[in-house]
Amino acid sequence: MSGRVGMLETFDARDATDLAALVARREVSPTDLLEASLAACELLNPRLNAVVLPQELAARRAIGVGLPRGPFHGVPFLLKDLGCEAINYPSHNGSRLLANTRYTQNSAIFDRIAATGVAVWGRTTSPEGGIGAATEAAVYRGPTRNPWNLNHTPGGSSGGAGAAVAAGIVPIAHGSDGGGSVRIPASCCGLFGFKPTRARLPDGPYVGEGWAGMAIDGFLTHTVRDTAVMLDACAGADPGAPYHAPPLRRSHAEAISRPPRRMRIMLVEGTFTGQSIHPEVAAAVQAAARLLESLGHEVTPGLPAADVPMMMRAWTDIVGIGTALGIRKALKGRALTADLVEGVGRGAVAHAESLHPTRYLEAVGEIHAFGRQMAAVFDHCDIILSATLAEPPAQIGRFAHTTEDYVAYRTGPGGIFEYSPFCAVFNASGQPAASVPLGMTKSGLPIGIHLAAAFGADDDLIALCAEVEKSAPRETRKPPVRMK
């Protein structure tokens, strides 16, 4: 790799779009890019523990047969080790209980990703059940670490994807987001992460809806344009889906091709319930507000008039019940033991079994009521601006899955909701939201800025993200783990 570590540096590229352009001009081949990606992984992954279940032969076969001539033809790509089921790509799903699961058919989202022409060669780590803000699953025999500082987490649940992209192993990777699981790693790793409107992307055929519609797939990227193009390629419900997202007025790629209209922006300086946040994170939010004002947007401090504590209780119950369902199905009558399921998973089962049988539908009703509350908020603004996380990236071990107190892990003092009080709001409401890499702590850890829009207004949101990306001062530092 000529002394270079990351793929983008190796080929003097900015992002996956640039790499695909090199392939289209025949300056490099898909095999060249795959070799560079594998070499970067061999060098960096022992320190990061981000990439698992490599399927190099599957990628080479796909290249040999001929990758589809899509927008990312020849670009190396990794799938999250949770969901995105595919015949040639076994999965642990972040769990010893589900280790080496194989699939008999592809998911709709995988087929659409593959049609873009990417060369898929492996998976990236995820916490068990996808219910953590860090990625430290026992099945991987160690935590996944942040390329910016190996003592800190890259986030979760798409933590391996965030680490792999930030480190330069691949330029773009699949993730998913049920409570911030794309946006949290984006914030922790200095990347762009976008959660679309509910049902914008397909769930089938393995899932009808994830976590009562709160979970959706997504991508970790260096640039807004890579996400926009991938979203356009993958958008649309699969046949038989229980519901569809409203149609976009324009594609994501078209939306970022010109500046957005001037917008009314609600600035949330602390949390949505009025608590203060880490001072360096708060300063980054204020800097983002000044940038948006300088671009001509109207920025006004405020708080969403919505029952966030009620929503988080309902979210916690729904996810606990969903986790328990998955674990009980996979156990197939076996005992729920510590060698098969980690502490938080066992705690989720215990919590779910303590609930009244009617609680699930009651919690779904509360989530729907919350969605209506949040819809009303956007009668008075176009965008909500906040931090993505209330703190810089957490240290390794803070959110380990050792505790069996599932509720406290999520909502107790020092728990995930205090650390990440913004993201799950928009999984519950179904509204689109994004984390944009705009800040950096004095110690060199990334800070993400969160932008959210009204239900269905994905095009407005991604256009604003592109304008911010273009206008923000360029951060020239790179993660220490990928330096020469």
Topology:
Elements: H1 7-10, H2 16-24, H3 30-48, E1 51-52, H4 56-65, E2 76-80, H5 108-114, E3 119-124, H6 159-167, E4 172-177, H7 183-189, E5 192-195, E6 216-221, H8 224-234, H9 252-255, E7 264-267, H10 279-294, E8 298-301, H11 308-331, H12 343-354, H13 359-377, E9 383-387, H14 406-411, H15 416-419, H16 423-429, E10 433-440, E11 446-453, H17 458-471
Parallel strand pairs: 2-3, 7-8, 7-9
Antiparallel strand pairs: 1-3, 4-6, 5-6, 5-10, 9-11, 10-11
Describe this structure in words.
The chain has 484 residues and is α/β, with parallel strands linked by helices. The longest helix has 24 residues, at 308-331. An eight-stranded mixed beta sheet has the order 4-6-5-10-11-9-7-8, with helices on both faces. A three-stranded mixed beta sheet has the order 1-3-2. It is globular, with a radius of gyration of 21 Å. It has a single domain, classed as Amidase signature (AS) enzymes, CATH 3.90.1300.10. Strand 2 (76-80), helix 5 (108-114) and strand 3 form a beta-alpha-beta unit. It has helices at 7-10, 16-24, 30-48, 56-65, 108-114, 159-167, 183-189, 224-234, 252-255, 279-294, 308-331, 343-354, 359-377, 406-411, 416-419, 423-429, 458-471; strands at residues 51-52, 76-80, 119-124, 172-177, 192-195, 216-221, 264-267, 298-301, 383-387, 433-440, 446-453. It comes from Gemmobacter denitrificans.
List keywords for this structure.
484 residues, alpha/beta, Amidase signature (AS) enzymes, 8-stranded mixed sheet, 3-stranded mixed sheet, AS_sf
Let me know the CATH homologous superfamily: Amidase signature (AS) domain
Approximate helicity band: 25-40%
Strand content: 5-15%
Number of strands: 11
CATH class equals Alpha Beta
Major pleated sheet: 8 strands, mixed
CATH architecture field:
Alpha-Beta Complex
How many separate helices?
17
Protein name: Amidase
Family: Belongs to the amidase family.
Pfam families: Amidase
InterPro entries: Amidase, Amidase_CS, Amidase_dom, AS_sf
